[in-house]
Every structure is written in structure tokens, then in C-alpha cells.
Amino acid sequence: MPCVIIAVAARLRHTDDVSQPVRIAPSLLAADFAHLADEVRSVEDGGADWLHLDVMDGHFVPNLTFGPFITKAIKSCAKRPLDVHLMITDPWTYADPFLDAGSDLVTFHIEVEQNGDVGELLARIRSRGARAGLSVQPDTPVERLLPFLDRLDLVLVMSVFAGFGGQKFMPEVLPKVQELRDRGFTGDISMDGGIGPETIAAGAGAGANVFVAGTAVFGVADRKARIAELRDRAAAAV
Ligand code: DX5
Ligand code: ZN
């Protein structure tokens, strides 16, 4: 078993800069899918820490995106960790195929907890060498996460309703981030939705350290300058 632990630690060290206090995770939902490998390269060369993959099933959210097959294709051309956000009703069935495809972090939503054993799935994700996360929609109280905090590597606080890119940031979710930190949660707190140069400081000030940005990064030609701008504004607010 120790060699497994060492192998996992080495893998994470190789792909992730753990000394980085602020992480920028461009969401490929806003990328040009006709040139996906070029888009991945442009944000990695621009300093992206993680690549955020938005998986939607047309059931948990009213939109459909992609599955393990495309995730595996992205993995084949990616150097940075894949941060996979499962906006799906049945992560118990589909987490393993996404892990097989090379996901480094797998996050699913607490709103589907009636469909399976949340603790079992978090343990399964970790047992496969990935990091495990839970997400909350804007209208879901953060208290729903409390029974699982000690088993989470990441909490993803939605700052828009899941389903579509390009929506407006909802500042009313910021107290959830603050509450998680007040309760002593030391894992990653990610904010997802409407993150850009005008909103990232509020998230960082509340205690978030990972910022998912789709439109703000892929909507500009100079991804490197935009990622640096986001990072600087977040770091200045910490
Ligand atoms: C929304 C997704 C987000 C989305 C963010 O359901 O989870 O990751 O891509 O897009 P922007 O940054 O455009 O709000
Ligand atoms: Zn997302």
C-alpha cells in the first residue's frame, strides 16, 4: 500500500503546484470545441493551474455537454490537472468512467444526495487517487455539506445556477465561502460562475482560492494577460 500512496503523491506533485495560493481554472465550456487542443494549449501556456470540465446530463441541468470520451481526449493533450464538475443526477454510475478518463478532481452536487451514498462516492473517488469535491447550487444552504467536510478536498460554491456559461455573478453566495472558512475548512474552495476581473476579488476576500472562469478567459484573445489579471486581483484581495 505505501507504494500506492507514494505514487499518488508523486502524480499530484507532478501536475499541480501546491504552493500556489490562488488557482485559476479556465472552464472549457467557453472554448472553441472545433479547436480544443489549441484552446487547451493556449490557457496552459497562459498560466492556467487546472482545466475545468463542465459535464451536464440534460437532467440535473437543462443542458448537455460531453462525457468520458471527450474527457479522455482532453487528457491526452493536457498537462495541467483536470477538474471535472459533474452536473449530473447519477454520479454513482458515471464517476468511474470519468476517473478512467483521467480526471484529477471529481466534484458532484449535494442536491443529488437522495440518489446514493455521498460518503461512499467521496471515498471511492479518493481511493482511485483523485481528489473529491462537493458542490452547492446558489439556493442550497451550505449546511448540507457539513456532514462531509472532513472527507472533502474541495467545495465548489456555485455563483450562478449550474447549466450555462456567461451568467452574472451572484454576490449573495459569498457568505457560504466565509462560513466554510469560519468552520475551519482548510481544503480548496472554488467559485464557479460569472468570475471575472470585476468579481474575483470578492470571492478571494471571502476565502475562496480556486476560480473557475469560462467567458472571462476564453472570451478574450490574450488568455495569458487575462489569467495574470485574475490571479493578481485575487491575490491582492486575500
Ligand atoms: C456553469 C458551469 C461553469 C461555467 C462558468 O454551469 O459550471 O463552469 O462554465 O462559465 P462563466 O465563467 O462564463 O460564468
Ligand atoms: Zn463548472
Task: Describe the structure using short key phrases.
TIM Barrel, eight-stranded parallel beta sheet, binds zinc ion, 9 helices, 17% strand, binds D-xylitol-5-phosphate
Question: How would you summarize the topology of this molecule?
Answer:
Elements: H1 2-15, E1 23-26, H2 36-45, E2 51-56, H3 68-77, E3 82-87, H4 91-100, E4 105-109, H5 118-127, E5 131-136, E6 154-158, H6 174-182, E7 188-192, H7 200-206, E8 210-213, H8 215-218, H9 223-237
Parallel strand pairs: 1-8, 2-3, 3-4, 4-5, 5-6, 6-7, 7-8
Helix pairs in contact: 7-9
The structure holds D-xylitol-5-phosphate (DX5) and zinc ion (ZN).
D-xylitol-5-phosphate binds next to β2, β3, β8 and α8.
Strand line-up of the largest beta sheet: 1-8-7-6-5-4-3-2
The CATH topology: TIM Barrel
Q: Report the C-alpha radius of gyration, rounded.
A: 16 Å
Number of helices: 9
Quick one: CATH superfamily?
Aldolase class I
Tally the beta strands: 8
Biggest β-sheet strands, sense, barrel:
8 strands, parallel
What are the secondary-structure elements, in order, as H or E?
HEHEHEHEHEEHEHEHH
How many structural domains in the coordinates? Answer: 1
Specify the CATH class: Alpha Beta
Structure description:
By secondary structure, the protein is α/β, with parallel strands linked by helices. It has a single domain (2-237), classed as TIM Barrel (Alpha-Beta Barrel), CATH 3.20.20.70. Helices cover 37% and strands 17% of the residues. It has helices spanning 2-15, 36-45, 68-77, 91-100, 118-127, 174-182, 200-206, 215-218, 223-237; strands spanning 23-26, 51-56, 82-87, 105-109, 131-136, 154-158, 188-192, 210-213. Helix 7 packs parallel to helix 9 (223-237). The protein binds D-xylitol-5-phosphate and zinc ion (ZN).
